[in-house]
Amino acid sequence: MWVRENFSSLERVGKDMLKIKGVLSFFLAMLFSFSLLQISAFVAGEGIKVVIDGVEQVYDQSPVLMNDRTMVPLRGIFEKLGAEVSWEEATQTVSASKNGLFVSLQIGSNLAIVNGMQNILDQSAVLVNSRTLVPIRFVSEVFGAIVSWDNATQTVSITSAGSEGLVTVYPEESSEVLKNPYRGFLNYTAGMFNSGALSSDSVVAHMGVGYKRMGWSELEPVEGQFDWNVIDDNIEALKKVNMQFAFGIHAAMINNEKSFKQSTPLWVFEAGAKYTEEIGGQVKIPVWDDSIFMAKFQNLINAIKERYNDNINIAYVDIRNYGNWGEWHLYKIEQSKPLTLEAKKAHIDMWNGSKFQLMMFTNDLQATKYAQDSLNAGIRVDGCLDPTSLNEHKLLLKAYDKAGAVSESVAPGYWGYKPGEKWADKMPFFPLMFEKTLKEGKPSYMDIGGWKSQEFYGEQEDLVKRWSNRVGYWFKITKLQYPSAITKGTLTMQIKNDGVAPLYAGLEKSAVVKLALMDANNKILKVKTLDGIDPFDWKPGEYINETASYDFEGISGATKICLGVFTRESFETPDIKLGNNGEVIDGWYVLNSISSVEGSNVAANKLYSASDEYAEYGYGFREARYAFDGNDNTIWRTKDAVNAYLEVDFGEAKTVSNVFIKEAIKSVTGFKIQALNGDEWADVITGSDIGTEGKTISFTKTSTQKIRLSISGASDMVSICDFKVMK
After folding, report:
1. Under CATH, which number does the domain 184-254+288-467 receive?
2. Within 10 Å of residue 727's Cβ, how many Cβ atoms?
3. pTM for the whole thing?
4. What digits encode the pLDDT tens for the residues 274-319?
5. Which CATH fold would you assign to the domain 2-163?
6. CATH class of 607-726
7. How many whole angstroms separate alpha carbon 619 and alpha carbon 605?
8. At what angle are helices 341-349 and 365-375 packed, to 10 degrees?
9. End-to-end CA distance of the chain
């Protein structure tokens, strides 16, 4: 009775543990639970039966008890559960793999290696009559099986994951350009409207946000009378091309003696606000801490908040209360006196109560931090493409993991690199500046071409296409597991973010994931939010494992199980697109229509890295990902002839036996294929050359989570245009 009660408790713990993210977390939790169990009712191993999926097992070595643990023949259990088993005599190590999970144990050791990580067992593996015996609950549950104990019949029953009808797929990644909210390339809408770019299928297809910087007088020419069309017309035009709108309202704008505007309405000064004069008295600039000016500007902000709070078409609003162009500096308005930090804070406080994302400038980092802390503001950095200021873009990182960031090029931006301009001799360096800003600054938004996006696209089309999905976030499912009986069970996903930033879903950052059941006519029968899954956690450059249980109790007629990602839980239609191929119905990804891509190439849709990525003038960085994208025209390149490497992380252990590698230019004179074994890299095979025709390199089956091409010799820069890994 005591034993049965403890097994029942264990089963309850197991159900709770299904909520823990990741196979490894679940496995460790089950080991901890099992360590609490003392099977003192057993007096001998004889008579213990093992039943797997309803079939009693017969072994040439019967189960035995050791330190109150039931020990069973490893090979028999593993193979019945569908795992591949191997034995290494020299090290007395047994290994097994199944569905990307790799396990190894050494005789006499209480350490199990699970996907490269060490885990302590409560009973070491042992040899009995030349058979490896291991704790039964460990070998079963590490592969996702359910274990139960019947004390009356002395029977251990195992239900394998496969018998429950789990479907496992490795979705194919898509190259489609995605329009997703709160991310992307941006352009000033005035330039877009004037050039006809909004009606163009070229540059607009790669842009996520339209931006307008406007003077206060443009929006409120008469006190209390607002021309909301200035904003609303932009919103409506951009909605038609699936873009959001962002804007900022400034109180001063002087470009030069011939180009200026009276940004602050004259009625503000007629009401008694103090001012200074510029351009020979042609422009009035407010005294920035004047009480009347601040009260009138506060009224403007209040009207903006009342009209646009919670507007899902607004990506962000700049805090432009102070300085020339609202950029928190006094350049070209020399008569103005700078504000104290406390006065700047008072300006920032005007935006309290905003329910849209705010962006703050970085000309005064103390003020910037105050806006971040008090308003959860993101930041914008101007001057990111200035070749004389190579680290300006790193200021963007002050917002990383907190809120979105905007990268904007300093005037003249890209056009300063053109022939005859001040940076003309640095034009070959421009793509590197552009990519450095994205790779190192990690912004959610980046302008392209200022007011001339169409012209910029015409000259830098390849650069825009290579990066349009990677500005901000770009989510892809790399592994998916769900029950074939779709109405109830556990969904497991492995996800990567191939963008440069997390998802900052507006001010609240409250994105969710939902499941839906549909019938054969694509009618939604029921929708559930998956608790414990937050897309904000899907950070770039790593695998994220998500697990959630669900139950659509009482629902009949369902033929499709669908997944959607939402920036707000209140939405009925998913608004975040994924970088995966498959059937999509009104934003819902039909999971049971997704086919697996791993049949021929287990390196597809994975994470990639390299010892270095060559910075090539006129192009940009020759990244590791380019060797795996199936396009011979994109290349990973390194100038290091020795000790350079190119690496793929499968996200789980894979059993592989050959690779296909192809050079764009023949140069390799020596290489090694290496596999990660625990914490060390082991040579799998060596070779002398690869060639531009490509070479298939076969080797003994190896279970590993990572494969690496290591270069030991080359006659010139190494250029790899194709790299596949096969089982």
Report:
1. 3.20.20.80
2. 13
3. 0.80
4. 999 999 999 999 999 999 999 999 999 999 999 999 999 999 999 9
5. Copper Amine Oxidase; Chain A, domain 1 (3.30.457)
6. mainly beta
7. 24
8. 30
9. 48
